[in-house]
Model the fold of this input.
Amino acid sequence: MTTSADTPETKVSRFQILRLISRNWLALAAVIFLLLVVACAVFGPWLMGDLIDKPNFRARNMAPFSLSQGWTYVLGADTLGRSLLARLVVGAQNTIGIAFFAVFCSVVIGGMLGLIAGYSRGAAGTMIMRGADIVMSFPSLLLALIVLFSLGPSVTNLILVLAITRVPIYLRTTRAEVLEVRERMFVSAAVALGANHTRILFRHIAPIVLPTLVTIGAIDFATVVLAESSLSFLGLGIQAPEFTWGAMVATGRGYLSTAWWIAFWPGLAILLTTLSLNILSSWWRTYADPQQRWRIELARSKKGIPEKRK
Amino acid sequence: MFAFILRRAGQSLIAVIGLLVLVFFLSRLTGDPAYLYLPLDSSEAQRQAFSETHGFNDPLVVQFGRYLVDLARFDFGDALSRNRPAMEVALEAFPQTLKLAVIAIVLSLCFAVVVGSLAAARPNSLFDKIASTASLAGASAPDFWVAIVAILVFSVGLGLLPTSGTGTALHWIMPIFVLTLRPFGLLVQVVRGTMMGALASPYVKTARAKGVNRSRIVFRHALRNSLLPVITVAGDLAASLVNGAVVVETIFGWPGIGKLMIDAIVRRDFALIQATVLVTAIAIFVLNIAIDLVYARLDPRIRFETR
Amino acid sequence: MTGPHLLEVKDLTVDFLSLGGAFRATSGVSFHVDAGETLVILGESGSGKSVSASAIMGLIDTPPGDICAGSVAYRGRDLSSLSEGERRDLNGRRIAMIFQDPLSHLNPVYTIGWQLEEVFTVHGVASGAEARQRAIEILGRVGIPEPEKRIDQYPHQFSGGQRQRIMIGMAIALRPEILIADEPTTALDVSVQAQILELLKKLQAEDGLAIIMITHDLEVAANMADRVIVMKSGRIVEEGEARAVFENPAHSYTRTLINALPHADDRAPPRPARPAGKPILEVKNIDKFYTLSSGFFAKPARLHAVKNLSFDVAAGETIGIVGESGSGKSTVARVLLGLNEASGGEALFHGRDVLKMDRKQLLAFRRKVQMVFQDPYSSMNPRMTVFDIVSEPWRIHKDILEKTRWRDRVTELLGLVGLNPEHAKRYPHQFSGGQRQRIAIARALACDPELVVCDEAVSALDVSVQVQVIDLLAELRDRLGLAYIFITHDLPIVRHFADRIIVMKSGEIVEHATTEEIFRNPQHAYTRQLINATPKPKWQTAADAA
Done:
C-alpha cells in the first residue's frame, strides 16, 4: 500500500470518503457498531460499573430475552446473578484498551526498527531482520504462553507480549517500504543537495511510511483482540478480578449445557468487533488502491452519464 | 534456484537456533530455574538439591554448553508430570497435530482457491459479496468461541457429534471445521485480492486481444501468477495453524502437541515445554523449506535466474 | 474504392466513470483503414488515442468505460451487433494488437512457446505438435535467432527488442487483416526501434496488413504513415495524407507539434564552437564496477559500467553526453555527484578531487554542483510544498541565506523559471510534467551553482514541452553563466544546445568533438548510426530510393 508521487490530481476530501462509505451498507454498519463499542470502552465502567459489583441472587443464571428483572438483564445473567449486558459493556474497556496499547507499542517499536532496518546498509539491518525472523517463525500464541509463563501474567506483560509478537509485521512492512522509498529520486535529490541521514530519514522517508503503518495498525487491531481473547480464554491472559470478553467466555465454558448464554454473548461481541474492523479495513484497501478504487465509486456515478447505446 | 533455497534454509536455521537460545535464557533469567521445573509446593531443600544435580549453580557459559550438548542428543530430561523422557512424549503427540493440520490446510487452500477465483472473476456480483463477507466473518471469528458454539449446537443441542477425544470419524469433524475456518477466510481474501490484481494486469489484456476466453484467462493466465503470493501467505499460516491447534485440541481433548503444551504449562513441567517448543520449531522450519521449494519451482524467474 | 472500409470507426464517444462524474475520453472520433495501408494516430498523452484503439478490440473496461455513442464496423458489420463469442473470435484472428511495454504484456510464468501456441489453440486452428511447429516458424519470421531452442524460454530471458518481436509474432500468427500497434517502440532504444519498424513494414508488404499505429513520436509517425490523424483532448484536430499534413499543417496544434521537432530546421547549422575557457571540472580515468549477485558458489560477476572515462568542463560550457541505455551515461552523473562510489579515477573540481572529499568539503561542493533528475514525477517529495522544495537547499546549507529573505528569493527563482509566486503554496501533483521540471530547475539554482548536471532531464516530457525546457536552460545559461552536463539518449535535441558532445557506448567514450563536427562530420560508426537511426519520413525514403 504505497503512495506514489503521481497521485491523482483530485484530492478527495473527508466528506467524500464518508459519502462513499455510506453507499456500502455493510461498511456503514461496521462504522456504527465500532463507534458503539468505543463508546462502551470509554464510558462503560462509569455508566454501568455499579451494576456488576452487586450480585443479584434472584437473577442467578437467568436466561436471556426476558425483561422480568429489568432491561439490563435482557441478555441473561451469570452464576452470580450479574447482568451479562452490563459485564459486556464494562468489559469493553479492558478488551479494547489492552488491544489498543498493544497495537500502539507495536507501531512505535516496529516502525522505528523498520526505519533503521530499511535505511541502514550495514549489519544493523541484517540483525534486526534475523530477530524478526525468530519471532515470526514461531506461533505467536505459544511464544506468548511461554513468555507469560516465565515472567508471570500481569497486564503490563500481557500488553508487551502481544505487542512484541506483532512487531515483525510492522517491521517488515516498514522496511519494505523504506527500501522502496529510499530508491526514489527525491531521496537522491536530497542527497545531492547535501542532506544528512537524519534529515532524509525523518523529513523525507518517515512521513511517507507513516500512513501505511497506521493502516496496518488498524487492520491488526482485530488480530490483537483475537489473540488477547485466546490468551485470556486459556487462562494466561488477564487475571481475575479484572476481565475481558475472552475471559468471560472461559468462565462460561463450564456451564455450556445449563447456561449457554454466559459464554455465547461475549464471544459474539468479539466476533462482531473483529468483523467490523475487517470489513472497514477491506473497504479501505480497495479505496486506497488507485487501480481498484473505481469499484467503490462505480455504484452511483453511472447515473450521471448519458444512456448507454446498445 | 539452489542458491535461493540454500539462502532461505540458512535464514530459517538461524531463526530456529535463535529460538532455542531464547528459551534457554528465559528459563535462566527469571531467577532460579528450579522454580520453573519443580512443583510450587516443593521445599527449599528440594530445590537446592535439584539445582545441584542439574548443574544450575554452574557458570552460565558452562550451562549453555551443556544445554547445547543435550539438544544435540535430543535429551531434555524427564517430563516430571509424566515420568517419561520429555522428547518421547512430545514426539508421540506430534503426529496427532500433524494429521489435523495437514487436512486443515489442504481443505482451506483448495476451497479458498476456487471460491476466491470465482469471486474475483465476477467482482461486485452477488456471489462475490457473499463470498467476501463470509470469508471476512470466518477470519474474524474467535476459534474458541466457534468451537464452543459448535459443541453447543451439535453435541449438547442435537446430540449428533461427540464432544471430545479421538476415535471414530465423527470425532474429526468439528475439530477440523474449527481449525479450517480462519485459514479459509484469510486465504479467500488473499486469493481474491491477488486474482483481481492479476486480472487487471497487462498480460491479461494481451490474452484478451488474442481472443482467449474468460475461463481460460482466469484459471490459466491469472491463477498461476496469483498463486505465488498465495503460497507465501499459506506458509505464514502454518505457524498460525499451530496457534489454532492449541485452542482446538484443548477444547476437544485432542491429544496433540498443542494440548500437550497447555498441559505442560498448567503443570509447570518445563522440560516438556522445551521439548514441545523444539519439535514445533523444527516442524515449521521444514515446512518453510518445502514452501520455498514449491515457490521456486513455480516462478520461472527464480528457476532461470538471468546472468 | 468500392464497398465498405476494412475497418471503420464512426463518431466514437467513450466516457470513463470516476468519482467526479464521467470523464469524456474521446468525442466523436471517426477514422477508417483499408488493406495494405498504415494509419497513424498521433497525439500526446491524454489525447484519447489509446482509448480509440482499445475500443476496436473491446478492451476498455478496467476502469470501466462506456461507449456511449458511435460504432466500430469491420467489413461493414457493426461490432456491437456481434455476440461475445463472435467478437472474441475476431480478436487475434482478424484484428490483432500489440502494446507498449512487452515485458509486462507477456505472461511471466509461461514459456513464449506456450503463449504463441495458445493463439492457434484457442482459435481451433492447430494444437499439439503442429501448433509448436507453427510457433517456431513464426519466431523465425519475426527474426528471433535459433527459434527451436528459444521457444521453451521465458519472457524475462529475452531483450526488450526481442520481446516486442515475440509480441508481434503472436499478433500476426493467424495472418490477421488489421494490426493495431499501441506505442510499440516507445520503450526501446533508437536503433532497436528502427529494426522493429522495418519488421512491421516487411510484414505489411508480405501479408497486405492494414496497420493502425498509435504514437506520440512525430518521426515515427512520418516514417510509417500513409495517412495520419492528429488527436488532442479526445478530438481529431487534423487528418489527411501524411505528407500533406506534415509539410503543410492546417491546425495550429499540429504546427506546434511539428515545430517542436529538433531538426525541423535540419538545414540550420548546429551550434557553433566557442572558445573554451579554463576547465572547472576535470574528470580523469573514472572506472565504475558493479558487482552482480549470482549463485551461491559461483564467483560474483562484475559489470564494467564505466571504463576509463576522461573529459573536461569549462566555465559556462555545455557538454552533451549522448548514449543509449546501458552506455553508462547516468552512472557517470551519479558518480560525479557522489551518489555512487567510483571504483577508480579522480574528478577535480577547481583542483580538488571530488571523489575523495570528506563530509565538510562534500557539502561545500554540493553547493556548486547541482543536478536535475529525469523523472519530474518522483524527483520531488509529494508531501512538500513547492516553497519547501525550493528552499530545502537553504535548510541544509544554513549559511547561504537568512530565513527572512527566503520567501523573496523563492519568488525570484520561480519567476526565473517561468512560474508564478502563488505556485509556491501548491504541491507537486498539482502541476504538469513540464512545470515540475521547472520547479526542479529552480531548486537546483537555489544555491547559485556553477555547474548543473541534467540527467535525461527532458526525456519523460512531451515533445513540445521538451523544447520549452531546453530553451529555458539555454536562457538561464546566458543569464547566469551556468555550465551544464546534459545527458540524453536523443542526439538531435542537443544540436542547438551543447557546445561539445561526448558519445558513449558500453561505458566508453567513442567520440568527443564539438557539436558542429559531430553533426557535420561524424567519425565513429556508432555516432553515424545514432544520427541515421532517427526515423526518416516515408516519402523521403521513397524519393531517395527512386
Q: What stands out?
A: Strands of chain B lie at 78-79, 84-85. Chain B has a mean pLDDT of 81.
